[in-house]
Amino acid sequence: MTPVSSSRTADSRPAVDAALARHLVDTQFPQWAKLPRKRLDPAGSDHVIYRLGEGLSVRLPRHAGAIGQAEKESEWLPQLAPHLPLAVPQPVAVGKPDFGYPWPWAVSRWLDGEVATAEALGDSSRTAVQLAEFLIALQQLPTGNVEDPAAGSLTGRDQATRAAMAEVDGIFDAIAMTELWDAALGTPGWDRPPVWFHGDFHTGNLLTLDGRLSAVIDFGGLSVGDPACDLTIAFTLMSVESRATFRAALGVDDATWVRGRGWALATGLNAYTSYAAVNPRVAAQTTRQITAALTG
Description:
This protein is of the alpha+beta class and 296 residues long. The chain has helices at 6-12, 18-28, 69-80, 118-121, 125-140, 158-167, 174-186, 232-236, 240-250, 254-275, 280-295; strands spanning 37-39, 47-52, 56-61, 91-95, 105-109, 114-115, 195-197, 206-209, 212-216, 223-225. It has two domains: 6-110, 2-Layer Sandwich (Phosphorylase Kinase, domain 1); 115-295, Aminoglycoside phosphotransferase (APH), C-terminal lobe (Aminoglycoside 3'-phosphotransferase, Chain: A, domain 2, Alpha-Beta Complex). The strands form three sheets. It has a five-stranded antiparallel β-sheet, with helices on both faces. A three-stranded antiparallel β-sheet has the order 6-8-9, with no helix packed on it. Helix 6 runs antiparallel to helix 7, helix 6 (158-167) crosses helix 10 and helix 10 (254-275) packs antiparallel against helix 11 (280-295). The longest helix has 22 residues, at 254-275.
């Protein structure tokens, strides 16, 4: 999930209902006008999602932070997908703003599966190795003309993360959080050529079929730079043992691992302070994530 502060949520989210989704699809893509559609609920914090017939999905951004995903996935996933060992979304079309809805939106092929959970896969060394293999394959792909020196940087999150730590003091160990965060900011940065990273690599963006990992979704954070942010998956999904398997398979050095723990802490705190009070599921998930990040 790409957390959004509670102060922005109420102000920036356009109303999206079945009538709007139908109008957008029917007018821009009349070839799909007769297909039934069913809203997915819950669908995450970034998009309202409708299943369109049996084979398609419609994804409409909920907030301004997610508005680039449709075009980004349409441009890059067809180039990356053939080289990745797990299924990824297959973009079909990008819709335009209309009927008062302000942003581009996406139609993609439907991917069957259930969202991965720590309960089902957390102890699986097979899953840990699969995820490492996926990241290795992604990182080895040519980055082309993509340039973003700031991508994957923790420093821009410093102020918000320290504010969140102060907010949860007494719920989580303030001294341990501060020590980890200072270490993550102070550790040597990525000193190799920039590589592709997913950018939002957590359990909610993994699908399973028949109990096995099948797909990686939601590439709105896709970019090039320091891949430490993708280590967040180790702290959202894995047990201590499978985490060690994952790290060994991926070949992560100490500095990158510490930065990865910092990413897990920062994103976990952001989501916890934004959603925990109103969403028990997010509260449980982010508590696990923060605790695992502190453990290492």
